[in-house]
Amino acid sequence: MQSTVTEINPERWVHSYGDYLYNYALSRLYSKDLAEDILQETFLYAWQSRDSFSGKSTERTWLISILKRKIADHYREKATKKEQGIEFNTPFIQGDFLQGKWNDERAPHDWGVDEDDLSKDENFMRSIRQCISHLPDKWKAVFTLKHIEELTNNEICEMLDMSDNNIWTILHRSRLRLRACIENLWFKKI
Amino acid sequence: MKMMITCEQASFLIDKEQYTLLSAKEKFNLRMHLLTCKFCTLYKIESHLINNEIKRVVTFNEAEIRLSDEQKSRIIKKLKMEED
User: Fold this and answer.
1) What's the mean pLDDT when you consider all of chain B?
2) B64 neighbourhood in chain A, CB within 8 Å
3) How far apart are CA A150 and CA A159, in angstroms?
4) Is B11 a domain residue?
5) Which CATH code for domain A104-187?
6) CATH number of the domain at A3-80, out of 1.10.1740.10, 3.90.420.10, 1.10.443.10, 1.50.10.10?
7) Does the model's ipTM exceed the 0.90 cut?
8) Is residue B19 part of a domain?
């Protein structure tokens, strides 16, 4: 009767599901150390609440649901922190009659590339990832919820306790910064 | 032409448009702006390109990255401490 309970063995979890869960975490957290920490917390939580595993779903599904919650907690923690330290260095001219125009030095350059060539290039994808990983934590949370989890603004508002306007602003600033980062990393390596 | 929007506003709409439908007024303002602004036209191209690539980046990453043996034993060690 106890057999399903005694089979629960965290060491086996790590070997059977570790890679999968790690990838899942990594693609949402962009940092190996952080992904490992969250994975650790996930297994720990699973172990402590092993009695609640009903066996209705597979073990993997159960572990993923815990991991998802842990990632969500992490986002929430980052998002509710004061925005101190996030500097938004706007690429637009401020405060004179050219207000809101691109600052010449920071305006987009013509990349002059073929998108099909770029998308075959794994290094280009790596550069994008690297640039995403450099976004401030709060922006990264919003950006990832939008692009990877494909949540609606309403869902993000609720989860991170932010306004809709706030989300648009963060998405826009993230994208401005990503574009500039990619241009610096990829197109100015002359 | 009090309807004219700035590059700052236009780039905001360019990004927003990739997530949701713009209002008729927003669309009109953006179109008018893009007619005369080469920087925002470039921004639009690059912003779309990045958007497409991000989708690829997501699936690309979910490929093969494995936990190292070192990471595994670190995790197991901590779990064992907790079990005791």
Assistant:
1) 88
2) 23
3) 13
4) yes
5) 1.10.10.10
6) 1.10.1740.10
7) no
8) yes
- pLDDT of A67-110, one tens digit each? 999 999 999 998 887 766 677 889 999 988 888 999 999 999 99
Comparing alpha-carbon positions, the chain A residue that sits nearest to B55 is A147
In total, the C-beta contacts within 8 angstroms joining chain A to chain B are 125
Beta bridge partners of A92: A102
Structural domains counted in chain B: 1
Structural domain spans, chain A: 3-80, 104-187
CA distance linking residue A4 with residue A8, whole number of Å:
7
Contacts of A128 in chain B (CB under 8 A): 50, 53-54, 57
The tokens describing A52, both together, are: 């609640």
Helix axes A122-133, B38-61, angle to 10 degrees: 100
Asked if A78 contacts A141 with a C-beta cutoff of 8 angstroms, the reply is yes
Best residue in B47, B67, B69, B74 to probe A by mutation, most A CBs within 10 Å?
B67
B64's CB contacts (< 8 A; 6+ apart) are A23
Residue type, A32: K
Same fold? A3-80, A104-187: no
Q: Which residues of chain A have pLDDT under 70?
A: 1-7, 83-85, 189-190
How far apart (Å, rounded) are the C-alpha atoms in residues A138 and B54?
Answer: 18
Please give the Cα distance from A40 to A29 (Å, whole number).
Answer: 14
Domain range holding B77? 7-83
Q: Whole-angstrom Cα distance, residue B60 to residue B21?
A: 28
| B47 contacts on A by Cβ (under 8 Å) | 175, 179
